[in-house]
Amino acid sequence: MKKFKNLTKMTAMLAIAFLAFSCSDDDDNSPAATLPETITELAVATPELSILVDALTIANLAETLDQPGSYTVFAPTNAAFTAFLAQNNIPSLNDVPVDVLTQILLNHVVVGENASTSLSTGYVSTLATQPNSDLNLSMFIDTTNGVTLNGVSNVAIADIDATNGIIHVVDAVIGLPTVVTQALANPAFSSLVAALSAADGDLVSVLSGAGTFTVLAPDNAAFTTFLNGAALGDVPTDALANILLNHVLGSVVTSTDLVGLGSGYTNTLATGPSMENLSLYFNATEGVSFNGISSVTAADVVTTNGIIHAVDTVIGLPTIATFATSNPALGNLVSALQLADTGSPTVDYIATVSDATAGPFTVFAPTNDAFAALLLELDPSGNTTLSDLNPATVDAVLLKHIVSGNIQSSGLPNGPVATLGGNITADNTAFTLTDPNNRVSNIITSLVDIQAINGVVHVIDKVILPAQ
Predict the structure, then answer these.
(1) How far, CA to CA in Å, does 439 sit from each of 51, 110, 385, 413, 424?
(2) Where are the extended beta strands (E) located within 175-255?
(3) 189-210 b/e with 16+ CB inside 10 Å = b?
(4) CB under 8 Å to 218, separation ≥6 — which residues?
(5) pTM here?
(6) CATH for 2-175, among 3.40.50.10490, 3.60.130.10, 2.30.180.10, 3.10.410.10?
(7) CATH superfamily to which 180-318 belongs
(8) CATH 2.60.40.2100 fits 321-460, yes or no
(9) Buried-most residue among 132, 214, 329, 458 (CB within 10 A)?
């Protein structure tokens, strides 16, 4: 009730400020006082926004919000600033570093005039920027029950018009958001927050701390599908931690970056054999997808310590099969594995490369072009297709591409390599593999160390053949 009375009092003060500056004595011929019209003038005229005015002055932003333009300002009250200082153990406004204060204030300003009726649930960009970056911080607006900003601040008085924008008075200072702040603010990420809290490794603290992260954030529906009727508590906490870390990159990667690259591999913070970081395949040729199963539904939610892309599917720990099936350039390899399985294969190929507990194995993966070249090598007329080959022959060929153990490129020997089908010769300087027929395959340097949970893949440009 006291809070309601204070807000009512503030509304009356704003009205009085307008009247005091716009009215003149009927018996006095002196000119009418100037109406306070800019955002700064309105704030100055409102006693309950005096700390905001002091803050704007310290940060040299009062003049900015006094100039022509179009801004939406979410203006914290004096009580909001007092609570913010107390919560952060800051004695006074003057004890906040000016650069930090500037960013906090800019985090309350949005370009353009946004009346309360035009606000909708979703993200907007503020004028604050990510440290050492020109990326503008995001703000989550939730309009399901009033207007709440980043889950911490509510609009108390809306739609105060100014000549250069509009003011919405808010009841709490909107701090600079971290990845966790934004996850907490958006109800669609409540399952993600619960998972982060339950997992080993204190991931809430990790993603609240310094660093630069890109988080691929599964929404609630994605977790429901992933759990498939099980409870979150049924997932071992160590496994849950690794699954969650498989959604985290150690640097900021925007959607523009991904589109510019088109497709390729990066590494997550999850680990596989020998504690090597797991790889992640991205394809941005049509939308943005990861490992062939998870698509971005909301991109570029910018925080102080990273960026979030919302995704529609939990990205499980990848197997060798994951990387073979998700990359279109390895489609012929998948077909070869399937063909070999139709005979009496030495290895049950699809089941083995799909088994997260198998191996680990090192796979030298020929590209589609490599298989096409092999078919022409076998039949220069071009009339032979992959499906025409004998499954037993394909089995013998595939064995030449698989090595027991997880051999990263840095551990590739200079000499014999014992594949499941016999020795081939590696040159770790030229990055080549030579088969018993003296046919040389080049390891594609941009496509090495594709780390799965059950092994590692190195892409090569020529199919390796057994002795003929």
Answers:
(1) 76, 62, 21, 18, 10
(2) 213-218, 248-249
(3) bebbbebbebbebebbebbbee
(4) 191, 192, 226, 247, 294, 310, 311, 312, 313, 314, 315
(5) 0.90
(6) 2.30.180.10
(7) FAS1 domain (2.30.180.10)
(8) no
(9) 458
